[in-house]
Amino acid sequence: MERHVEKLLNKLSVVFITIATIIFLFLILQTPHTCIPTTNHPRARLLRFPKSSCDSARRYYVPISKKNERLWTAQDWKKKVNSYSLFFQSLRDQRLLSNHSKVLCVSAGAGHEVAALSELGTRDVTGVELVESPPLVSRADPHNLPFFDGVFDLVFSAHLDEALFPARFVSEMERTARVRGVCVVVVEECGGYEMKRILTMFKHSVFVSAKNVTLIGLRMTQIIMRSRNSS
Q1: Mean pLDDT, residues 87-113
Q2: Considering Cα of 152, then 157, then 161, then 163, what sign does the dihedral take?
Q3: Which of 89, 104, 110, 212 has CA atoms 20 to 30 A from the CA of 47?
Q4: Number of H helices, E strands in the chain
């Protein structure tokens, strides 16, 4: 009796192993339902990014020049560049900026201010940001700028209030500005107390002026400091 039971169990084991092997091979060979076929599937053209690692649909490389062409022809880009142009023109009127000025834009984002300065005729403009946007903006840490001391005639930033370490950010602006050069920052519109806190961060500059301005549609405060010595 025991031998009959043992034979039956062995037969059942063989059957279960065979079934399991067939199921395993079926799962390996079948395309998962999460994958989108590379043929003319009606949903394929709607997908911008792969839904799974097995989605091998063709994706086209868009060159930087093409991306920039789309960006620079957008109305929002033109409006912001025009706003920066008006802002920098006021600095030209104060004789703080000229075509021969060497300018650094810190935390320049996509490069609106760099484009505006170039359009105004400033020949030497450098824009830096944590994420580069070639050809206008190069990658660099605003808290550790890769430039020698006293290189720039004017150092500008509209993003001081977004800095992770504001004091270090300001220190690097001062360090790279030449003696008698200027640091210009634009921050969210502020009053006397906030203004004083910002001014105390400039250890090697003297206060020139401050006023409220409108930049890229926002009410902001412009602060101009003149470098008095090397930091």
Answers
A1: 97
A2: negative
A3: 110
A4: 6, 7
